Hints:
The chain is built from 13 helices and no strands.
Amino acid sequence: MAFGFMADTVSSVSRQGSIALPVLYSIAFLAGAALLALTAIPLKLDFNHLLYKVGHPLMAIGFLLLCCVPSDATICGFIFTAGYCYVYIIMTCLNAHFSHDLGCSPGWIVALSTFFLVAGQIAAMLLFDSVIWLASADAPTAEISAIMAFALPMCSLVFLDEKNSSSGWGAICPGQDDTDERSTIAKRLSSEFALTPREIDVALILAKGRNKERAAEELHLARETVKTHAANIYRKLAIHSQQELIDLIEGLL
Length: 253
């Protein structure tokens, strides 16, 4: 829907100037693809970060600029479209993951996601044109588009809560073996409780019922160092005993 609003706005501006809309969108899509190539590895293919911290905010920035400088709607549309392409490619990767790793029907997954993408754009364009028609011929199209659509990309942030890293896109990482329980637990301890890699190592050993001396031996650390890590673990997890730690780790499975 957000893309449909922005497309109508940029289209209305381009008709008044010399901007070739297909050229604008083509370059913007290439920019989005290049940005994804630059950020995918540094963000470790974490779909939470890619979608919610890069793609959707970039789309929202396009609308924010449209509110501030409506005369430069073409530039705002370029920024937004680059973000939209960024998100579109990520969703395509997710489709491939659903199909290959989860056994979903490729035709059904692709058809369903494409339907909602296109249906949202068409619905937004019709709604935009209806509002302009009902308002007046001289209605401020850029402002109306920004007001109607700025919130749409940011609404996705509602889905990024403390549990999303395990139940949302953050739980999906290409090439990761979903049967590796240790990797799954380690990722959740890191993302949800901000445990460091060494604290995770200590937590997993203590969760097996072993004491701090055994943890120090296995990790080749001083006992005092393990005690410090354990204290930090208890504080971050808001627990007070080893049994609570065991129960919490079991609950993460």
